[in-house]
Amino acid sequence: MSSAFMKEEAGVPWTPPSATRAYRVVWTGDIDPASAAQPEVMRETDDLLDALRWLANRPRPGFELRGVDGELLATNAA
């Protein structure tokens, strides 16, 4: 029996889509540049300083900070 609040295929409670945030930190470290794979979103926020602090505290390179339009704003590449 399915409920209006359950995803039929997964059996988990439905949650509304999250609002678009101004900044997104993505992980690009394992992605082959020749592939069509999309970077994994690690953090989204409207606070630029929060995003930059989070990016700076990553122990390894491979993260990028991008704006809502996808423009590269910062990276922690070595």
The gist of it:
The protein has one helix and four strands, in the order E-E-H-E-E.
What does this structure look like?
With 78 residues, the chain is α+β, with helices and mostly antiparallel strands. Helices cover 12% and strands 26% of the residues. It is built from one helix and four strands. A four-stranded antiparallel sheet has the order 2-1-3-4, covered by helices on one side. Strand 3 and strand 4 (72-75) form a beta hairpin. The longest helix has 9 residues, at 48-56. It is globular, with a radius of gyration of 16 Å. 9% of the residues are buried. The model has no long low-confidence stretch (mean pLDDT 83).
Whole-angstrom Rg: 16 Å
Return the average pLDDT rounded to an integer.
Answer: 83
Silhouette: globular
Task: Indicate the percent of residues in helices.
Answer: 10-25%
Strand content: 25-35%
Count every beta strand, where a strand is a DSSP E run of 2 or more residues: 4
List the keywords.
globular, single chain, alpha+beta, 4 strands, 78 residues
Write the layout of secondary structure elements.
Layout: E1 23-27, E2 40-45, H1 48-56, E3 63-67, E4 72-75
Antiparallel strand pairs: 1-2, 1-3, 3-4
